[in-house]
């Protein structure tokens, strides 16, 4: 019930290409879906997040697509750059109740963007 | 924006030593902080939720006597790995919730713990 499944485990993209990472969740009580970017030796940093009342959110080159009925959401990175090479984690959270703020993370995707 | 500072960034010590890691919220008061452990090429594993002024809530399978958490003020939580052994070597990350914004957590930059 608490799992968030992320795929692919790793992804190689050419510079300028589109990177797509997918996540699926089970718990319908989740109402906040962030994506984090992590560089080696650093903590995760929030990239973009979405709530289930919208189907898409775009910030610069990063877009989240959200399908509430399928319980799936995905991250699209347009015009991928070598500097985007990092590990990406999707996550899900319930923003109410006693477990407010507790994040359930996906398994992570190692993205490599070749020049 | 909100900043979470974690110290030290790296520590190497002998087996049997106790190691303390600090997590500070620099520009907000955090009633709730979280401690994670991350193995190489793996996801973050929540160890415990730290609430200011009360006992931490540990996740299943995490030894509370091994990983002591203290959240004595609204800006500081500490994790002490007691009598550390090589299997405790890992990347430990803290995070804090800023009640002023909608983000559940802001993350520190982690502590690389190596036990020889």
Structure write-up:
The complex is a heterodimer of chains A (115) and B (116). Chain A has strands at 4-7, 10-14, 19-25, 33-38, 45-50, 56-59, 62-67, 72-77, 86-93, 103-105, 109-114. With 115 residues, chain A is mostly beta strands. Chain A is globular. Chain A starts with a strand and ends with a strand. Chain B is mainly beta and 116 residues long. In chain B, 0% of the residues lie in helices and 51% in strands. Chain B contains no helices and 11 strands. In chain B, the strands form 2 sheets. In chain B, strands 2, 4, 5, 6, 9, 10 and 11 form a 7-stranded mixed beta sheet that branches. Chain A binds chain B through residues 32, 34, 36, 41-46, 49, 89, 93, 95, 100-103, 105-108, 110, and chain B through 4, 6, 32, 34, 41-44, 46, 49, 93, 95, 97, 102-110, 112.
Average pLDDT over all residues of chain A: 93
Sequence stretches where pLDDT stays below 50 over 5 or more residues of chain B: none
- Give the ordered list of helices and strands of chain B: EEEEEEEEEEE
Rounded Rg of chain B: 13 Å
Q: Strand fraction band of chain A?
A: over 45%
Work out the largest interface and the residue count of each chain. A-B, 22 and 23 residues
Largest sheet geometry of chain A? 6 strands, mixed
Secondary-structure element series of chain A: EEEEEEEEEEE
Shape descriptor of chain A reads globular
**Morphology of chain B:** globular
Question: How far is it from the N-terminal to the C-terminal residue of chain A, by CA?
Answer: 40 Å
Largest β sheet strand count, sense and barrel closure of chain B: 7 strands, mixed
Number of beta-strand segments of chain A: 11
As a percent range, the share of strand residues of chain B is over 45%
The helix count of chain B comes to: 0
What's a concise summary of this model?
Chain A is mainly beta.
Task: Give the helices and strands, then pairings.
The complex is a heterodimer of chains A (115) and B (116).
Chain A: E1 4-7, E2 10-14, E3 19-25, E4 33-38, E5 45-50, E6 56-59, E7 62-67, E8 72-77, E9 86-93, E10 103-105, E11 109-114
Parallel strand pairs in A: 2-11
Antiparallel strand pairs in A: 1-3, 3-8, 4-5, 4-9, 6-7, 7-8, 9-10, 9-11
Chain B: E1 4-7, E2 10-13, E3 19-25, E4 32-38, E5 44-51, E6 57-58, E7 67-73, E8 76-81, E9 90-96, E10 106-107, E11 111-115
Parallel strand pairs in B: 2-11
Antiparallel strand pairs in B: 1-3, 3-8, 4-5, 4-9, 5-6, 7-8, 9-10, 9-11
């Amino acid at each position: 019930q608490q799992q968030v499944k992320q795929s692919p485990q790793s992804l190689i993209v050419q510079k300028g290409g589109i990177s797509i990472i997918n996540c699926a969740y089970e718990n319908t009580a989740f109402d906040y879906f962030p994506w984090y970017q992590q560089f080696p030796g650093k903590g995760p940093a929030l990239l973009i997040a979405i709530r289930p009342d919208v189907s898409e959110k775009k910030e610069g080159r990063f877009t989240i697509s959200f399908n509430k009925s399928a319980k799936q959401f995905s991250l699209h990175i347009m015009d991928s750059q070598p500097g985007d090479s990092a590990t990406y984690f999707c996550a899900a959270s319930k923003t109410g109740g006693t477990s407010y703020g507790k994040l359930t993370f996906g398994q992570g995707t190692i993205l490599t963007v070749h020049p | 924006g909100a900043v979470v500072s974690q110290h030290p960034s790296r520590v190497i010590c002998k087996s049997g030593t106790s190691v303390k890691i600090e997590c500070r919220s620099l520009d907000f008061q955090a009633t709730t902080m979280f401690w994670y452990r991350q193995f190489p090429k793996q996801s973050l594993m929540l160890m415990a939720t730290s609430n200011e002024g009360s006992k931490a809530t540990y996740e299943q399978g995490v030894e509370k006597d091994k990983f002591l958490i203290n959240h004595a003020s609204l800006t500081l939580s500490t994790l002490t790995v007691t009598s550390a052994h090589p299997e405790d070597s890992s990347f430990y990350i803290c995070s804090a919730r800023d009640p002023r914004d909608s983000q559940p957590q802001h993350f520190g930059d982690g502590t690389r713990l190596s036990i020889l």
